[in-house]
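Pipeline run #58 for the internal structure catalog. This entry was flagged by the ingest filter as a single-chain record with no existing model, so it goes straight to prediction. Upstream metadata was stripped on purpose; only the residue string is passed forward. Reviewer on rotation: M.T. Logging verbosity set to normal.
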Amino acid sequence: MTHLIRKKNRQKAIDFAVWQNFTHRLEGKQFGAIQSVEGDFIITSPSHPSFIGEEFEILPTDYSNMGFKEIGAVFTDIEPLAHFEQIKRMVSVMDGEVLQFILKYNVPLEKFIRYELASRGYDENHLWCGFEKAEEIWLK
């Protein structure tokens, strides 16, 4: 991403910067969100020459404290960020009885996800490492 990306919404800019940091982690690129003079938010590298010394938004280290208000914003957004759209779609297409079963019996979704990742044979940087190594990484 060499150009500046703009988002009107502060939270969406923060979420997009977090996603950019995740997807560009192997390249060592860092992104942040900063309010522009026009009032919208720019997603760019904090080392971008135009923003050296400027104060960027603080990015979350995880989403474990995401509340229903924030989740509602994702579900009702007419232009959601792609990664949140995929998560929303995954849940939206599941049968309601299955969703209720997951909640009632505390089905460990994190373990299901870890098992799926291990069965793909890739490490935490999405680099092929083989199935045995992937199991060591994901099935902790």
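catalog note: Helices lie at 10-23, 68-76, 82-92, 96-104, 109-120, 131-138.
catalog note: The chain has a mean pLDDT of 95.
status: ready for reviewer M.T.
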